[in-house]
Write a structure and sequence with these properties.
single chain; six-stranded mixed β-sheet; 6 helices; 27% strand
């Protein structure tokens, strides 16, 4: 149950944010390195490590928020270094759910979340977008739902609701593990709104004149390094997306209102038909799958 911490000592340690990728660690001093940057999907900082404490990160990276759809709030930092994902808060009659973390939340942003009812459930697609989940857990003590497959990345957190492949922590909001990009990579399906929060399963390039319209779509094992997914990984993606009804697809960075189930399946089918690749495909060239 929320609040039950059989070993809370690690969570009492100071938090430090990696300036290169935004990954949080709890450590007795500035960490010697960042495990997420050392992972093959990322790159190490060219000029060495820099870690910021929470107060310094809050002062350096202003936090902004907006209601991007009725009942869905987006939080982001600008300017920011590193990966810089956005966080989403979904308000429902049964509670509020946070998905993904921006690099750092300001005190004003946390107060705004409190004014919306706090946070009942918290999750994320994968470690690249964990961001400041520790801040949300410290402030609101939500149920933290993460796939067991990515448990090794959660040292700065207290996982209270691990799951294997599918979990519906609130009515109408369902987590589905896709694997692929990370072993525990997951997407969140909002059935009522017809939105899939797809994490890094997909990547979009947006129209500069219409920031909700995707021009291209792609899928990668590692974005920074341009590594493709295998056919087996793509087949698992397809099985997950094919079972969901959605007409919008949102990443931690982009909100593609013109890409839904049909376009996503068309992309994956095209990738399965040839050798693995990671290049962007124009949305206009896709023949949406019925």
């Amino acid at each position: 149950m929320p609040g039950y911490l059989p070993f809370a000592g690690a969570l009492a340690l100071p938090a430090f944010v990696c300036d290169n990728c935004g990954f949080w660690q709890r450590h007795f001093a500035a960490p010697p390195s960042c495990p997420l940057c050392l992972d093959a999907r990322h790159v190490v900082p060219q000029e060495g490590w820099r870690f910021r404490g929470v107060a310094e990160a809050q002062a350096s990276f202003p936090c902004h928020w907006a209601e991007v759809e009725p009942g869905v709030w987006k939080f982001w930092n600008e300017p920011v270094t590193g990966i810089g994902p956005s966080a989403y808060l979904i308000v429902t009659p049964d509670g509020t759910m946070g998905f993904e973390g921006c690099p750092v939340f300001s005190e004003a942003a946390l107060d705004h979340i409190a004014s919306l009812g706090g946070m009942t459930i918290l999750s994320a697609s994968h470690p690249h977008s964990y961001g400041a989940l520790p801040q949300l857990q410290d402030r609101f003590d939500p149920e933290l739902c993460l796939p067991a497959a990515d448990f090794a990345w959660s040292a700065a957190l207290q996982v209270s609701w691990p799951y294997d492949d599918v979990l519906e922590p609130l009515p109408g909001l369902t987590l589905h593990r896709t694997a692929g990009h990370f072993d525990g990579h997951a997407v969140l399906h909002d059935r009522r709104r017809g939105i899939v929060f797809c994490g890094d399963a997909l990547k979009f390039e947006l129209d500069p004149d219409d920031p909700r319209r995707a021009l291209t779509i792609s899928a990668h094992k590692a974005f920074v390094r341009g590594v493709p997914l295998t056919h087996a990984e793509l087949a698992r993606y397809r099985a997950v997306f094919a079972a969901l009804d959605f007409h919008q697809t949102w990443t931690p960075f982009e909100q593609a209102a013109n890409v839904g189930r049909g376009e996503v399946l068309a992309l994956i089918d095209g990738m399965l038909a040839g050798r693995p690749h990671a290049y962007p495909v124009p949305v206009a060239e896709l023949n949406p799958v019925a």
